[in-house]
């Protein structure tokens, strides 16, 4: 047992990524093979993996650090504006730009009423990724990656693994190239948010906004116009990521040393 714990402590990220993929994929693939389109996607895999590896490698102190970041709400109001406004603004901008490249005018009436959207968003926040993913990706993996890599390199590593984590969704046609690229780009932006707030809560809010602005605002286009709009969205997220690197540099994405903002450092 001691040798196993030592192995986990030495290879925390490998253990976390392996467990996050295993918990999610092993809950998905058997159901796919037996039920076809009736597929559960275990979005809590990264969170469960993060807590397990944190407990094995650092005990209660490491688990507590992740929990504290999940309820850290006292940050500068600017970062709430970023968490809510940036994903929504990027999606809205892509919609307004799309007709300039030959798409039909946006069909705003296709968007459900806010009273209908709100309860669905609340359910999606819990069961469709934000709550189940962010404590793992940002709360556990990000500070450990940044302990040995620059913010840019760590973001890209995490972004690629985050994208790979979604791969089984391709079996049911719920995976696209533009979505995969967007995940990698979003990892850069999420690292920037986390590095300047130390808050997984803010990452959860940004995840909710990003996911649902695409899900609901995207209804204004269909067919090829929708696909084109999503690619424009990818270009906008790429521009945001490039702007972050250009302004902050690639090392930390923050004006303070990384050690001061990475609240769940590896033990």
Automatic annotation (TrEMBL):
Domain of life of the organism encoding this protein: Bacteria
Parts of the chain that traverse the membrane: 12-33, 39-66, 78-101, 113-132, 144-165, 177-194, 201-218, 230-248
Taxon lineage: Bacteria, Pseudomonadati, Pseudomonadota, Alphaproteobacteria, Hyphomicrobiales
Annotated keywords: Hydrolase, Membrane, Metalloprotease, Protease, Transmembrane, Transmembrane helix
Protein's name in the database: CPBP family intramembrane metalloprotease
One of the GO biological process terms: proteolysis
Coiled coil: none
Record flagged with keyword ATP-binding: no
Sequence ranges assigned to domain CAAX prenyl protease 2/Lysostaphin resistance protein A-like in this UniProt record: 119-210
Entry's Gene Ontology molecular function annotations: endopeptidase activity; metallopeptidase activity
A Pfam family of this chain: Rce1-like
